[in-house]
Design brief:
- This protein has about 325 residues and is α+β, with helices and mostly antiparallel strands.
- It folds into 2 domains: about 90 residues, Phosphorylase Kinase, domain 1, CATH 3.30.200; about 210 residues, Alpha-Beta Complex (Aminoglycoside 3'-phosphotransferase, Chain: A, domain 2), CATH 3.90.1200.10.
- It contains 11 helices and 9 strands.
């Protein structure tokens, strides 16, 4: 099933329309909010002159350097001309007096987002479009496009491992033995990275928008806040966590009939990119660990009363289930 379009703004996440109208020099404006997502807030802003998508950080305290709207805006400005799936950015506001935080506007793209299900006959072409867009992204020539300046590929994987372990320790509300085991294994088993590439850093099916046709293609790749230059296998491993690991507590619907299997994805990726995937299991363990940290960060915000969204109340149990999955995968990969 495709995700619903923008709807009513969630209570407590309203924007100051008068301030936004003054900044845009347009109005009257109407405001709706896109559903889904647990991180940045995304709205549909409309006026007689058109429609725009507005992105701003979540409410409450956020981690340092996280949810950097200016960085995401500038990355999209550099990327859109060479990677059309990236939406075109329109305007950036860094004045927190307007809406209480930096934000930016970008073009609106239309299409279907598949969060929980999709017609079985669409599973093969959606699988193909999902993977081929990832391969296209990882194959961009960083020097010719000028994208190399967007990150520091040397030591990328070590920084990611150390950084996500640190995020876990800061967000943890209690000790979990299985996570301690995974943390030790990740820290002592880091593989050597191959050639760097541009990575989206949150590449999963529900961050892709597809054309609504018998053979869908990617209409947009969304949520670029964490994109950087790094190890493409890091992204492939994390994406497989969301796509194909039936060992997750709630197996993704892409494990169902018609969808490409983990092995099909790995085989096509290796053939198209020529990359050595022998250490991919390490990256898949890291993918589950990264998901653990993300879920825990959201859960601890709920525990501290920084968000009232009741979707997050059960996230503590999800963390413990994912921890057991990560520990099993690490034992198998060792």
């Amino acid at each position: 099933m495709s995700a619903p379009d923008a709807g009513n703004v969630r209570p407590g996440e309203e924007l100051d329309l008068a301030a936004l109208e003054a900044w845009m020099g347009a109005g009257p404006l109407t405001l709706q909010q896109f559903p889904g997502g647990h991180s940045n807030l995304t709205y549909l802003v409309a006026a007689a002159g058109g429609e725009w998508v507005l992105r701003r950080p979540p409410l409450g305290p956020v981690a340092p350097r996280a949810h950097d709207m200016a960085r995401e805006y500038r990355l999209l400005a550099a990327l859109h001309p060479v990677f059309p799936a990236a939406p075109k950015p329109i305007a950036l506001c860094e004045d927190q007096a307007v809406l209480g935080a930096p934000f930016f506007l970008m073009e609106r793209r239309r299409g279907a987002i598949y969060r929980t299900s999709a017609p079985v006959e669409l599973a093969p072409p959606l699988s193909e479009a999902f993977l081929d867009t990832l391969i296209e992204l990882h194959s961009l020539d960083l020097e010719k496009t000028g994208l190399l300046a967007l990150g520091k590929p040397e030591g990328f994987l070590s920084r990611q491992v150390a950084g996500w372990i640190d995020r876990w320790r800061k967000a943890a509300d209690k000790e979990i033995a299985a996570i301690d085991q995974v943390v030790r294994w990740l820290a002592t088993s880091i593989p050597e990275s191959g050639a760097p590439g541009l990575i989206h850093n949150d590449y999963k099916l529900d961050n892709l928008m597809f054309t609504e046709s018998e053979r869908p293609r990617v209409a947009a790749l969304l949520d670029w806040e964490m994109a950087t230059i790094g190890d493409p296998l890091f992204e492939l491993g994390v994406s497989l966590c969301y796509w194909a690991h039936a060992e997750l507590p709630e197996p993704p619907f892409t494990c169902g009939p018609g969808w490409w299997s983990r092995d099909q994805i790995v085989e096509r990726y290796a053939a198209r990119t020529g990359r050595d995937l022998s250490r991919l299991p390490y990256y898949e363990v890291f993918g589950v660990f990264k998901l653990i940290v993300i879920v825990q960060q959201i859960y601890v915000r709920w525990l501290r009363g920084q968000t009232q969204d009741q979707r997050f109340a059960g996230f503590g149990a999800v963390v413990e289930q994912l921890a057991r999955t990560a520990a099993r995968l690490a034992e198998r990969a060792a």
